[in-house]
Amino acid sequence: MFPQNQWIKIKAPATVANMVCGFDILGFAVNNPYDEMEMRWMPRVNNEPSITIINIDDYNLPTDPEKNVAGAALLALIEEYEERINNNNTAHSLETKQQSVSAIKFEVKINKLIKPGSGVGSSAASSAGAVVGANHLLGNIFSKDDLVRFAMNGEKLASGVKHADNIAPCIFGGVTLVRSIFPLEIIALPSPQLYVTIVHPQIEVRTADARSILRQQVLLKDAIKQWGNIAGLVAGLMKSDYELIGRSLEDVIIEPVRSILIPGFDALKLACKQAGALGGGISGSGPSIFMLSKTKEIAVAVEKEMKQLYDGMGLPHHTYVTTINQAGVEIAA
Ligand code: HSE
Fold it and tell me: Is 3.10.290.10 the CATH number for 8-190+326-332?
């Protein structure tokens, strides 16, 4: 185990879920923005809570572990750790066995630099950062797949549904495909050099709301188009075929419904493509929009179009020009 009372620093990247056509299954991590967290463990005295959450930012998120996404993810990790200890089926050292999680306490400081409700995986970053941090403190006993399972409890708290398309790339880095949630199967996909431009119009779209408006049935002809695009996108990433990636960034199922929540969506997408972007769309459940480009110059030109459009509409916004993050959550002692 990591020495008690010593803080570790955690960097948890923002993520773009869905990648346009892959609703709930595709996603990638980006290098900017990211959340900063700190974590340490110490012996737990009597029946004090096993998790203390301290907010460093001004978002005033709940600090009750059961109501906080990082807390919910950590509680799932603690439960499974206790089970392992009790079942004695862990191959870990005596020290680890003696320090069962019920006898220790985690303190977590969270500085959210990814605005909640922005659509770039804010809740996933907190959930994933917390469980990767706890795992480091416990001596890395859980696999990345285990950590994704725990962190999904944070997503369930935030959106009402367990989905891993933000969590998986946040923990694994790069582009990930969630082939199945139950049982969990995550496939890390390669990708060529891609530049990512993100615009976050300063409105809030709650993931739960953006999910509740979706139709529960799809037409077969739409499903055929959609799975053609998903397969095309995966093939394009694996073959470094930029044109195929661009053609496959099309969503005939979710985007037509959700785009009405985002001011100027169609005009913005058109302007970005005319500026040379390969393609893009709603980031996660929105309101952020992302575009992929082959070069930094194009990504910057795309950013200019985004700013111009939202400045023209008088809509405050933030933009990022970044790249795909390959490391996932990072820990520094
Ligand atoms: N796949 C999820 C959705 C991502 O689109 O609802 C939420 O960030």
Answer: no
